[in-house]
Amino acid sequence: MSVRGEFSSRLGFVLAAAGSAVGLGNIWGFPTQVASNGGAAFVFVYIILAFLLAYPVLMAELVIGRATRSNMVDALGQISNSRWGRATGVWGFVTVSLILAFYALVAGWMLSYFLQAGALLLNLDGAAQWLVTSSGIRDIVFCGVFIALTAGIVTGGVSDGIERWSVRLMPTLVVIIVSLIVYVSTLDGALEGWKAYVLPDFSRVMNPDLLISAMGQAFFSMSLGVGTMLVYGSYVSKQERLPTLGASVALVDIGVAILAGMLIIPAMYVALHNGVEIFSDSGELIGGDTLIFTVLPALFDTMGGIGVLVALAFFALMVIAALTSSISMLEVPVAYVVESKGVGRKRAVWGLALMIFVFSSIIALNMESLFGLVIAATTQYSQPLLGLTLCIFVGWVWHRDAILEELKHGDEQIEQRLFWKIWPWYVRFVCPVVIAVMFYRSIV
């Protein structure tokens, strides 16, 4: 094992990388997009686009990471042999830190709702009320707790921290989702939700808005562009076949998103059956934070005594999904500070965690003006442009022979395989155009 650490097993890497990809967006964004965009038709388009767009970019990050064995800044500097490469790495470092700053606030809300369910079980009604009453103090406290949980895992390094916890958290997440699916499916109204989710409306497949939505969901759900997969790729053994590993990560990510839909959409229609409003004024299904913090808690309240246990399980699921993503986000700046600046891992982790917590606190105290602005600046503008830049590096700047040499480490016959015949030109010509179009459509 190298000094910088490696994943000790293929399963460890797949669960850690899939955990990075499986975040809150999969669980609250994907299901409502499906139900609002032609049900199973959207799932069909999403799966195709995940492999046509997201998988090639995922592979670009993994190949850069493993070839350079470096953090994002040094890796892009090496393959481009330019300041432009290092500057792009710094841009990714800053973007992922800002994403983590707002993400930790949202995860803190999940944590407070999870604890509220626990407080209700213990008949601590006053504490339960405080936990779900919006305030700057509550937001900062639970954001701090969440960042401390994240930092505690990342201090353990690759195999003893990230891998060890990913191997525990990801199966737990799947068990909770499946258990909740089984329970919710037995309730009145669930059948209508299943119909909305699984019956395809193929007339909408070629709708440009559906295609853009599916493309965006596929790209962003795999946490591409900000260096998390690049850094994780740098911890992969040279003996592994990268195309197979990348496909495994994509499949797990898609699978969890589809499972989340099997839970959320039937649950929303159960809520409708119980008198909870699930449609907005425009007739669309309610999504985002209103779904998670208003619609579903209202559903849990209509369930009686069992509702508290369902709420406890659901918000445990949300905290786990947030944590598997946040540990990969924190690892991006940590890897840079440890390797480029020679700072000890523990000191780097807690120093960066404190810095991100300060950013989060500033956002929490200026929620109306900063929260939406930071989300838009990072996920809507910076992330796709970083993804576009990575495609340019791999497709146009980095020598094709060097890429082939790296892929041969895990598979001597890679040159004869379909992957090598398609992927290099695909990431060179197709991905940049598609990402550019998606970016243009998202801002216009």
Report on this model:
- This protein has helices at about 10-20, 25-35, 40-70, 70-80, 85-120, 125-130, 135-155, 160-185, 190-200, 210-220, 230-235, 240-275, 290-300, 305-340, 345-365, 365-395, 400-410, 420-444.
- With about 450 residues, it is an all-alpha fold.
- It has a single domain (about 10-444), classed as Amino acid/polyamine transporter I (Up-down Bundle).
- Helix 3 (about 40-70) packs antiparallel against helix 12 (about 240-275), helix 3 crosses helix 18 (about 420-444) and helix 12 packs across helix 13 (about 290-300).
- It is globular.
Number of domains: 1
Structural class: mainly alpha
CATH class: Mainly Alpha
- The residue ranges in which pLDDT falls below 50 over 5 or more consecutive positions are none
The helix/strand series, from N terminus to C terminus, equals: HHHHHHHHHHHHHHHHHH
CATH superfamily: Amino acid/polyamine transporter I
CATH architecture: Up-down Bundle
What is the CATH topology descriptor?
Answer: Amino acid/polyamine transporter I
Strand content: under 5%
Q: Please give the oligomerization state of what you see.
A: single chain
Question: Which outline best applies?
Answer: globular
Count of individual helical segments = 18
Task: Indicate the mean pLDDT.
Answer: 90
